Each structure stands twice: as C-alpha cells, then as structure tokens.
Write a sequence for this structure.
C-alpha cells in the first residue's frame, strides 16, 4: 500500500470546502493513451488505490503500463471505540488522497482500447467516486 515516507505535520485538519471545487491539476491524460477521470470528489484511501491497481493489472494480464496519478499523503486519525469525549485528537489510522471532480486518477498505455476500457471499469468498481473513461482518441 502507498503511504508517505515522511510528512511535515503528523496530524492534519480536515479542511473546509470538501467536494466543492473542481480539480485544477491532473485534468488531462499525460502519460498513457487511456485514463480514469473522477466526476465526483472523495477521499480515496491507499487500500482502495491498491485494490484498483490490482484489478487493472489482472485484467491486462501484466501487459502494457499503468500510471497512478494520485498519492495518499493526507493522514486521517481515529480514536478507539468507546472513548469518552475529549482527551485530544486520535492517532493516525490511514492515509487518503483528496480527489476532486475532474482529476485523472489512473492511466494506461500499450494495450487495445477494449481491453483498457474493461480494465478501467474493473478499477472503477473499487473506488468511492463516480468516474468516466477518457482517452487521447476518445472524448
């Protein structure tokens, strides 16, 4: 699973305008021929990214190449069950990638369009965002 080697701050604030703004970076295909673009926003965990990567890799039978354009660098904290109120912020539990609408999350190249479409559909099932499949020659 993906997680940062080092972070500047161990615990972060949640942030305010969640799922409100559109993506300004990573909005177009940069590496491969086909991509999976988010149409809604969400926090995507490192486990979900890994599950999607495995689904794609199995679908293309280790052919072609896959690029993961998102990285989980935001720490999410939790407190133990049945903890009383107060006593500070909980420990870091896992890491998430903040995905805004319009972000290209995965790209693939070196395979046929129908195989790429099938692999990206399988990956989309594993993710908590609504997606669409894009391509350099599609649209």
């Amino acid at each position: 699973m993906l997680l940062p080697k080092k972070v500047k701050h161990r615990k972060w604030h949640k942030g305010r305008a969640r799922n409100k703004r559109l993506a300004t970076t990573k909005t177009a295909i940069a590496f491969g021929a086909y991509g999976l673009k988010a149409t809604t926003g969400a926090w995507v965990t490192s486990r979900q990214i890994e599950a999607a990567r495995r689904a794609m890799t199995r679908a293309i039978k280790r052919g072609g190449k896959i690029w993961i354009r998102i990285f989980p660098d935001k720490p999410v904290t939790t407190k133990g069950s049945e903890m009383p109120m107060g006593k500070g912020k909980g420990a870091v539990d896992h890491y998430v990638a903040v995905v805004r609408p319009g972000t290209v999350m995965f790209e693939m190249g070196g395979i046929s369009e129908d195989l790429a479409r099938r692999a990206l559909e399988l990956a989309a099932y594993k993710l908590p965002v609504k997606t669409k499949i894009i391509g350099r020659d599609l649209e």
